[in-house]
Amino acid sequence: MTTASFVPSFLTGSLMAEEDQAFWKNSPERILVVIQLGGGNDGLNTVVPYLNDLYYKMRPLLGQKKDSLLKIDDEFGFHGSLEGFKTLFDAGKLSIVQGVGYPNPDRSHFRSMDIWNGGLDSKMRVETGWLGRYFDSQCQKNVIPVSTIGLNVGKISPKAFLNRHSLGVSLEDPDTYQWETSGTNKVFVEAQEKIFEELNQPQMESEGSLLFLQHTGMNARVSSDQIRSSIKHYRSGVNYPSGNLGRDLSLIAGMMSGGLETRVYYAHQGGFDTHGDQLRSHDRLLQELGDSCLAFQKDLEQIGIADRVVTMVFSEFGRRVQENASEGTDHGAAAPLFVFGKGVKGGFQGKMPSLSDLDDGDMKFGTDFRQVYATLLDRWMKVPSSSILQKEFKNLSFI
Fold first, then answer.
1. Which of 20, 54, 376, 399 has the smallest count of CB within 10 Å of its CB?
2. Residue 278 lies in a domain
3. CATH number, domain at 60?
4. Which residue has better confidence, 222 or 192?
């Protein structure tokens, strides 16, 4: 490990020696995967209350026909494109958390995402994210290597990763996530390597911006080696659907299979801001979502680590109950959230909000999203949620 001579002491434990990989595979550490549905998923057409006449009255064009649904029980059915979710639900591996939201809902994409990312009161400014505070709590205890504590698949790291002591990693392609020298001259390349090492040497007297840059440079260098090493021999026996989400979840499964020590992975699926022509676009989006999640779960089971992984699927808000004049729906509030995995208790959590008692056209939330976070932190990640969410929230029973 040629980088070992200039790696800070708090990073040396994360280098991917063979014994480290063996320890990871035999350790009881749990993993959380978060999938964000960007734009505001229409939860009412995702989990459909097909016996409710008000649903069809308010959605004469967008209401999902009863015979097209995948029946969950005598009251609800999945959208017909969500065969993947139906399979997971029938296997007892998917929990539907109904009516998720927060007090004083905001219909702005940006503000609502800030609230979800921060995991705090809706009136508070977001300075750190709920996952970022989790990262900080673990780094202080040296429980998880700093370089790979959180990994986001995408160009921009989510605000949920904002923290004070460490940096998560964001990437799209592991092959290009590495230090690359310029030019082909051997002497010139070696000189660049030497400069990089000298610039990123941890200095005890360093502080502020210089320390931040040194930490960032070394974090990227070490995690780059780890990530590319972890997926080197990964060959999935599962056919993932085409599309960005399937590709990203396959990448995450590959990194897990190679022994990467990351405890939190973050993936995205966009396109859910369905103000117009919703039927066609939502069908496609939900098909990709359900099929990708089912393939991911099957992959984890083949790898042999499914008992250590739980995945949460959320969106920043739902849609309004009444369809609009463009055959779409506008920004709303409460919506269902999904959690799946081998360690999940399948079924329903909470109650669907009333369609006859609306708040300015929106469904009223019944489950605070921070109850979901608290449950994942307390029961799955095994850390006290109150210190991270800065408040006590009653746990749900999906773990």
1. 54
2. yes
3. 3.40.720.10
4. 192
**Is 3 domain-assigned?**
no
Residue 21 placed within a domain: no
- Taking only the tens place, the pLDDT of each residue in 291-319 is 999 999 999 999 999 999 999 999 999 99
Average of per-residue pLDDT across 175-188: 66
Residue 16, in any domain of the structure: no
pLDDT tens digits for 211-257? 656 556 556 665 666 666 667 777 888 999 999 999 999 999 998 88
pTM of the predicted protein model: 0.84
Range of the domain at 114: 30-173+208-389
Q: How many domains, the chain?
A: 1
How high does pLDDT run on average in the chain? Answer: 84
